[in-house]
């Protein structure tokens, strides 16, 4: 191929692609967030319209790559092609490309293309992603305090309009760090997380409940103590990956007064009030006998602890309990594990059938297993949340011990699509056939009719002269084979009949029955039989001689033959006599010469 021909072909392909994109698929590619924050989650959205039933959508930018496969029953991610840390999701006609943790290299132009199943690009769009590093700062009005004073820490974030993460306040003392308060930021919504340590409070500040670039978060301590003398910072943590970006550090110094442990009030002039105890009278008694006044220094109760509480001061939840009032029961995967007394979190995870931070929520109906990730399809009632067992069997189209796989000849997320595989063995997710196709079917998914077959079940045969027919309508693009007619070449032509319209009939005036070949008006001259398919030898009457004439001719032939034989005999006899006379004459001349 010459270079000029290649350029012409390439130009034609580009024009066709452009025409197809303009007249076909509509695509809008954008992000609702102004910019991406390093270490945080970021989402690009593609809204498609007028798409074919089955197509592929690909998101890519330099080395980053993710692909989504879409067909009539839904969409799923091509994990083989998607890079780690990037995911694709879909909902109706919207397709989402998710960066779990933005990196510096994710800035620039991103592309979204739509391809048909042959790989031809039928639509494309681009959008620019601007990457910033969040600006986080921590401040306080007075880092040097006296015990029982109030401390307020302010965490300010800038360039974070689309933030989706946890904002945490950390206290660092004795080479260990503790999270004393957390807030959840979900783009334009801020919420408290119920894991704030006792004596501390957190609050969502300005900008945290809108799309502002600047967001404020506040942590307060009503009465500081020497335990609060530490380094403090706030951090923004990615919920999915755990990546955390930290602020500057502030050192808080708390000077202790000369009061006794159980004294409170200005000048330490009074004991702790009844029902309160602690070094600064900051804890409330929790005795079994509510009228009892606990020890004002230790909190010890003579009557013991109420239900669900344990500890010297009855201030610790019993094992398997958590919450501010120990009102929640946790269910850890390991029976020997004790969950976090405040949050209920289990290091070993939840047992089968349970989910949630404290493993205290049962799986929803028709979901079971570890983290409730498996779905069951039982006939009448939900399955066992731990094992997935269905007591009354499987719902329609489902099979297996846990009713979690499709019956033969079915596939798809809801087993609502039919495959035409030999023996009914197809892959449940894709419908791909592993053992060949049923009769008259072909293709990777056995979803196409073989050449010369068409119909909803490929049960009809077309008889086209050249090439295959349309596998839905049976229409032939050229013409029909000999003996066939009709729009789909599925009827016998005039004067043809039989199973494959291969037999000729020879009716007198009208065509024959296209099944039996019977001629209602009789046969043409020279043909016989019910289908007029037997040829008869014809002899013209006017050309047949009479018997007498035939005898005369025979006699004449005999006479001519006899006369001919006689004439030949006479001629031969005359020749012979002439030769003998000539011989005698020669003998006489010889004798004369001798004498």
Q: Structural class, from helix and strand content?
A: mainly beta
Structural shape: elongated
Measured between the Cα atoms of the first and last residue, the distance is 112 Å
**Which consecutive residue ranges, at least 5 long each, have pLDDT under 50?**
3-22, 541-551, 590-595
Number of strands: 48
* CATH superfamily caption of the domain at 3-132: Immunoglobulins
The helix count comes to 2
CATH architecture of the domain at 3-132: Sandwich
What does this structure look like?
This protein has about 600 residues and is mostly beta strands. Among the domains are: about 5-130, Immunoglobulin-like (Sandwich), CATH 2.60.40.10; about 135-255, Immunoglobulins (Immunoglobulin-like); about 495-535, no CATH class. It is built from 2 helices and 48 strands. Strands 13, 15, 16, 17, 20, 21 and 22 form a 7-stranded mixed beta sheet that branches. Strands 6-5-4-9-10 form a 5-stranded antiparallel beta sheet. A hairpin with a 5-residue loop joins β33 (about 365-370) and β34 (about 375). The longest helix has about 50 residues, at about 545-595. The protein is elongated, with a radius of gyration of 51 Å. Mean pLDDT is about 80; it is low at about 5-20, about 540-550 and about 590-595.
